[in-house]
Amino acid sequence: MERILYGDNQFFAVNHVSEEKSRAQSIKFKSDDAIIKALNHAIAAGVNTFMCTTHDRIANICDIIRKRPEKYEDFKIYPCMPYAHKYANAVTELGIAGTLREYVPGNILGSLFKGGMAYLSKDYLSIMELMIDAEMKMFKGIQTPVIFLQNVITDLLLGLGMGNVLKAFQEYVERKYNAEAGFITMNMPKLLNALEQVGIKNPIICTSINKVGFRMSGSKEAYQHVLETKKVRIIAMQVLAAGAIPPQEAIEYVCGLPNIESILFGASSKDNINETVALIHEYDQKYQLMEAI
Amino acid sequence: MIKVALIGAGKMGISHLSILGAHHDVEVVGVADTSKMVLDVFKKYSSFQVYTDYEEMIEKAKPEAVFVAVPTKYHAPIVKNLLLKGKHVFAEKPLCLSTEEGKDLVELAARKGLINQVGYHNEFIGTFREVKRIIDGGYLGDIFHFTGEAYGPVVVRPKQNNWRSDPAEGGGCLLDYASHVVDLINYILGPVTRVKGTILKSFYSKNVEDSVFTLLELSSKVSGVLSVNWSDDTYRKMSTSITIIGSQGKIICDASELKVHFKTSDCPDNYTKGWNVKYITDLTQSVDFYLRGEEYSDQVDYFIKAIQKKVPNTINNFESAWKTDQAISLIKNNIN
C-alpha cells in the first residue's frame, strides 16, 4: 500500500463535527467534475490511491477514469463496502427481508422468500457474495488491490462474534477479485484478536488513530500497545480527529507511531491536499533521520 | 457477569446484541425472534442460543435482564410479562402505544424494584448532555422559546411495506422519528403538557404521516415548535437539533456541534461572552466498544451499570418515556 491514501468523506457530506460544513461540502461537490478535479489534485501531489465507499456517485467517477486509461494508468481504488446508509435507511423502510429482496441481484432471493427457505437455505454466505459482486460492479476495469468492509459491518459482526463471516469475506475477495481484504473498524485491538482467531494473519486494518484518542475504543494506550507488539498492517484514519487537532501536531503524532503502513486523509482544496501530503513527508523524513542517528 | 437476553432481532435488536456481545460484564444467554431466517443466521455463524418462543427462552436461559426490540404494539404485553417474572428490562422506543399501558409498566417496574430503561439515545450524546448542563445551571436565564427538529431520509418514495407503515403497530413519523425529539425536549426543558395545534402530513406514505409540525407548551409555560420530517433526502441520516432562546443567551445544538451565545460573562467555565462553539470531539469519551455512535454503547452500558447499582436508574427510565408517550398522545389529539 502507498504511504498516503486519499479518502472520500468530503465528497459525500460526511463531516463528524458540523452539519453546516457537511452541507457546504454537498454543495461544493455537487458535480462529478468537482470530485475529479480534487482527485487530480491528489494525484498531482503524488497520491495515487483513492479509498472510497461504494456510493452510487462513485460509479460516475469510475466511468470517467475508465475513459482516460493513459491519464489514470497508476491509479488505484480501494473500495469500502457497503455504503451503509443506503442499507440502514432501507432496513428502516423495508425491514431486513425487504432490503435483501431489494438489493440482492438475481432471483435467487425471490425464490428463497417465496419458497419458504426451500432453496439455498443453509448458505447465507452466497448471499453475501452476491452483494459483494453487486457493489463491485462499478469498479470493473479499475485496479482494486484491496477491498474493505466498512466499520459498521465489521464491528457489527465483531460484536456478534461472527469472525467466521469476516474470514469468508476475506476468502471471497481474494478468490474472486484477486484482492486483499481490508477491515475498517472503530475497535482495532478487539478486531485484530478476532481476526487472528479465525486465522487471518497480519491483516490490513483501517482505524481511527489520533493524538486525542477520538474513536479509539478501549483506550489510546491499548491501540499503542498493539502497534508496538503485534503484526498488523494499519491504515490510520481520522488523524485530525475531525479537526480537533491542528494538522501539524496531528501528523507529527501519527508519523511517530510504529506499524502504521498508511495514512488516510480527506481534503477538499488543492492547498489542503498539498499541505497534508507535505506534512506527512516532512515528519516521515524527520523520524527516519532520527532512527538513522 | 449479567445474564442478558434479547427479544426481537431486527435493526435495533441486532445493534444492541452486538454491543452486548462485546460488553465485558455481559453474558448473552439467548436471542428470540419469529424470523426463521434471522435465527438461522445466528445458529450458523454465532454462538448465541436462539429461540422462536421468548417465554421458552426466559424459562430455559434464565436471564437477569432482557432487551425488548419488537414492534411497539407488542411492548406492553411482553414487558409486563417480563417484569412479572422479575426481569430488568431495556425496551426500545417508544414505550407503548397507549398511555394507560405505559402507566401500568411504570408502576409495575417500580413496585418490583426492577431496572427499566428505554432506548432514546439522544440523552447519551455529549452535545445534548452539555445543553442539559447549561440549562440546569440557569446560564440561559429565563427560557422564552425552543425549536426541536429532526430530518432524515426514511421514506423518500411512495413505496414501503413493513410495520413502520402501519399505524396500529406503532409506525409513522410521529412515533418513530418525532418521539426522539419530544423525549429530548422533555429531558432538557421539562415535560410537554399542552399542545396548541398539530399538522401531521403525508408526503409519500399511504397509511401514516411522513412529517409532524406542532406547537408545544411545557409545564414551565415555555413554548416551542416541533418540526420533524422523515422524507427529507437532503440528509444522509437522521439529523436532530434543538434551538433554545433565553433571556441570557441562545443555544443551537445538534449531535455533533454545540453553539452557544451568552449575553454576559456570567457563563459556565470554559465559555465566554458571545458565541462559543464546542464539538462532539470535545464532549465525548471513548467507549469500550463502538458500533454506530458512542451513545448506543453508552446507553447499554448505563443500563448494565444500573443493574450493578453503579448508577441511578434515572436517565430514560420508563417514567420519562411514559411522559414522552403522553406528549405524543397530546400531539395526536390536537390535529388541526
From TrEMBL, chain A:
Domain of life of the organism encoding this protein: Bacteria
Protein's recorded name: Uncharacterized protein
Biological source species: Ilyomonas limi
UniProtKB/TrEMBL annotation, chain B:
SUPFAM superfamilies documented for this protein: Glyceraldehyde-3-phosphate dehydrogenase-like, C-terminal domain, NAD(P)-binding Rossmann-fold domains
One of the record's GO molecular function terms: nucleotide binding
Pfam families: GFO_IDH_MocA (PF01408), GFO_IDH_MocA_C3 (PF22725)
Residue stretches making up the Gfo/Idh/MocA-like oxidoreductase N-terminal domain: 2-120
All copies of domain GFO/IDH/MocA-like oxidoreductase, residue ranges: 128-251
N-terminal signal peptide: none
The name this protein goes by in its record: Gfo/Idh/MocA family oxidoreductase
Organism: Ilyomonas limi
